[in-house]
């Protein structure tokens, strides 16, 4: 592949930025990659492991002369970082971000972006429970979705170029508006994370009673919860504080359904439980049949999964 941007600046050198860096190197997509992280320790680690061609000591220095600037910091500090770089941005550059929430980030970053710079918010739907500069890997975005959430009147050529860049990083790209994005991720990512955090917290309370049995005997289901609940506390605190409305909307619906199931268990309403689980199993089947979950153990097979 060939160079798509001459200089890419990564601000915030954690899981997502480091994965973007290695994916750019794999594809030869950037002439030079500069980087900046707030802590001296992170910058030192980045230099030691060869993360970025040049690690700078200020965000403004990192974005100088960059034709693509990617904000890879927690969503709660996106606005502050945009304020730090605004005077150093090159005319005609594109500023994007990878934040998990879009409405709040657009409101915080947008006002700092000069007229002669394109601002195209983004969000790769790919991650792990690890964080920091050493956690990234080139394959993270392969065959994953990346949302682009352009604001009104954005130059179509700049959007097309950023789309092609994410495709070259390995992703499929979908455009949508910020409000819709925030609701979709509240259902698919944010509420599930909160539920996992809660479930692991409940089990931890219980563990004090059962003396480690909860962890010792957990198989697939609970282990998956513990993986998700190991995700970065700063990142997820910011996600819930900034995607408040959509998350509360989904949690409200979740709680109603949970109460209905709780009632069915208490009253012995087996039909309610059976019908509910039949409906959810059908949803899982349709995802597999549409070829959207190639990780499923029986992917490609037909018939009903074994109970
Ligand atoms: N982890 C995921 O699964 C995932 C997936 C998609 C998108 N995101 C989003 O990507 C962004 C980064 O997440 P991550 O997982 O790479 O986090 P991370 O914790 O691995 O990295 C964040 C980096 O930002 C730096 N940083 C924090 N505040 C800063 C500041 N004020 N100025 C400069 N640097 C600062 C930290 O030192 C760290 O290097 C977040 O907005 C998150 O919502 C995360
Ligand atoms: O795979 C994981 O560990 C993730 O949590 C990734 C995940 C997700 O929920 O799907 C987490 C947050 C993001 O904004 C995007 C992706």
TrEMBL record:
Oxidoreductase is among the record's keywords: yes
Domain Prephenate/arogenate dehydrogenase: from-to ranges: 6-295
UniProt GO MF annotations: NAD+ binding; prephenate dehydrogenase (NAD+) activity; prephenate dehydrogenase (NADP+) activity
Keyword Amino-acid biosynthesis set for record: yes
Pfam families, per the entry: PDH_C (PF20463), PDH_N (PF02153)
Enzyme Commission code: 1.3.1.12
Keywords: Amino-acid biosynthesis, Aromatic amino acid biosynthesis, NAD, Oxidoreductase, Tyrosine biosynthesis
Organism superkingdom: Bacteria
Gene Ontology biological-process annotations: tyrosine biosynthetic process
Pathway listed: Amino-acid biosynthesis; L-tyrosine biosynthesis; (4-hydroxyphenyl)pyruvate from prephenate (NAD(+) route): step 1/1
Catalytic activity: prephenate + NAD(+) = 3-(4-hydroxyphenyl)pyruvate + CO2 + NADH
Family: Belongs to the prephenate/arogenate dehydrogenase family.
Protein name per Swiss-Prot or TrEMBL: prephenate dehydrogenase
Organism, scientific name: Ascidiaceihabitans donghaensis
Lineage of producing organism: Bacteria, Pseudomonadati, Pseudomonadota, Alphaproteobacteria, Rhodobacterales
